[in-house]
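Holo prediction — S-adenosylmethionine.
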Amino acid sequence: MVSALTTNVTHFFRENHHFETLRQVVLPPLLEEARRGGRVRLWSAGSSNGQEAYSIAMTIAELAPDFATLNLRILATDIDPLMIEQGAKGSYPAAALEAVPENLRKKYFRKEGEDYQVASNLRGLVQFRELNLHDRWPMRGKFDVIFCRNVVIYFAPAAQALLWERFEEQLTPGGYLFVGHSERVTDGKHSNLRTAGVTTYQLTNRTSRI
Ligand SMILES: C[S@@+](CC[C@H](N)C(=O)[O-])C[C@H]1O[C@@H](n2cnc3c(N)ncnc32)[C@H](O)[C@@H]1O
C-alpha cells in the first residue's frame, strides 16, 4: 500500500549542483577528518531506490579511492520497502544510468543480465533501512550531511517544520542539510540552520540558540 501511495521519482545526480557542493566544499574537510580516524556519516532520507545515495557514494569514491578504509558510511532510508529492497540490490535498468557520466558508469557498475548493478565495494558504503520520517528515529549517532530532497513537499507545513527541527538535532555542528528544489527550510527564530547555497543549509557552530 505504501508503494502505491508514494511517488518514488528519482534519478542519479538529480539537482547536480548539490553534488558539486558536496565535492568542492563539504567532502574535502570530512575526508580529512576520516583519514585522521574520525567518524563521518551521511544520510539520504527519503532515498527512494537508492540512486541519490549511490550518487553520493560515487562522489565520495572519486575524491577518496581509499574510501573503504575509512570510518565513513551512508545511511539510506525510505518508507517504501520495495524501494529499500531495490536500493540494497543496487540494480538499475540501462535507462536509469543515462544521467551517470560514462567514466563513472564504467568504474562503478557491472552488467548483470539486462540491468546494471552498482559495484560491490560501493554498495558496501551504503546501508539501506526502512524508516518513516514521522516515526521515532533509531539512529543514535549524528550526521555530517543529510539529504532530504523532494520528500517533504508531500507533508503538511507543521510536519515539515518539525522535521527541519529534528534534522537540526541530528546534524553535527557545521553539518549540511540539502533539500529539494521546491523546498525551503523555514528560518525560524529558534533554528541554527543557515543558508549555505541553493537549497543548502548549514548548522552554525553556535551552541546557544537565539
Ligand atoms: C520523489 S522521491 C525523492 C527521492 C530522492 N530523495 C530524490 O530527490 O531523488 C520521495 C521519496 O520519499 C519517500 N517518502 C515519502 N514519505 C515518507 C516518509 N514519511 N518517510 C520516509 N520516506 C518517505 C517516498 O517513498 C519516496 O521514495
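READOUT: The chain has two domains: 1-6+48-123, 133-210.
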